[in-house]
Amino acid sequence: MVKMIVLVGLLALSFCVAMAADHSPLQDFCVAQSNSQVLLNGLACKNPSMVQASDFSFSGLHLSGNTSNAVGSRVTPVATTQIPGLNTLGISLVRIDYAPWGINPPHTHPRATEILTVIEGSLEVGFVTSNPDNRLISKILHKGDVFVFPIGLIHYQRNVGKGNAMAVAGLSSQNPGVITIANAVFGSEAAISSDILAKAFQVDRRVVSSIRSKF
Questions:
Q1: Are 118 and 141 in contact (CB under 8 A)?
Q2: What is the pTM of this model?
Q3: What is d(CA 120, CA 161) in angstroms, rounded to the nearest whole number?
Q4: Phi, psi at residue 184, to the nearest 5°?
Q5: Which one, 16, 19, 121, 198, has the greatest CB density within 10 A?
Q6: d(Cα 92, Cα 74) in Å, to the nearest integer?
Q7: Contact, 35 vs 83, CB < 8 A?
Q8: Is the peptide bond before 70 cis (omega within 30 degrees of 0)?
Q9: Strand partners, 175
Q10: Is there a binding annotation on residue 104?
Q11: Structural Rg of the chain based on CA atoms
């Protein structure tokens, strides 16, 4: 009976750990000390007596991002780099600007679920479920609409309106990370072998070389 209770307890604990995102804070706040040499899962804490209101604020999210680039979008992050007071709090924010027909290309956030709200314009959004189904779940969003991208899944947005578009998204990590699929596969340092990519994508090596030259 005791063994059964212990087993159930361990299973419950492992379930909680598996479901957790960032660790829960053990104090009111832990303002990031950017110049610290201490390495840990997060950033070292500033002395609480030295904390100021500026450690918890950021200005400039009303400014449009420059979308004059190859994909026609710009992400403006608000994470611990911009607000040191976010350290250990398990949340961050981005503003995303889109030129007409601009995209936020397929990418993943390995440490966060994302909830996106369209502020201006219309967006096609979607994510792909994991193997083996690889099902695309997509929708056209308009001003005021909200959509969720589950943690770790490949997702994208595209401006399908006539003018510029803008969205704001919250992420369930102070450091959600981002892996842009094309950049990671074709622009890695060092390069993945062209033979591997040609076989994976079922294309000629010359196609791989042509794509890689753009990254």
A1: yes
A2: 0.83
A3: 10
A4: -70, -40
A5: 121
A6: 17
A7: no
A8: no
A9: none
A10: yes
A11: 21
Token code pair at residue 164: 């510029």
Check the annotation: does 62 bind a ligand.
Answer: no
Q: What are the tokens at 12?
A: 């419950």
Task: Map tokens 């990671």 to a residue.
Answer: 184
Q: By the 8 A CB rule, do 181 and 96 touch?
A: no
Q: What is the DSSP letter of 90?
A: -
- Could you give the CA distance from residue 79 to residue 109 in angstroms, rounded to a whole number? 14
Half-sphere exposure of 25 (CA within 13 A, CB side): 19
- Provide the residue-wise pLDDT of the chain in tens; the chain has 215 residues: 444 444 434 334 344 444 445 667 666 777 888 777 776 667 888 888 899 999 999 999 999 999 999 999 999 999 999 999 998 899 999 999 999 999 999 999 999 999 999 999 999 999 999 999 999 999 999 999 999 999 999 999 999 999 999 999 999 998 899 999 999 999 999 999 999 999 999 999 999 999 998 88
Q: Has 35 been labeled as part of a binding site?
A: no
Rounded Cα distance between 122 and 87, Å, is: 33
Task: Return d(Cα 187, Cα 199) in angstroms, integer.
Answer: 17
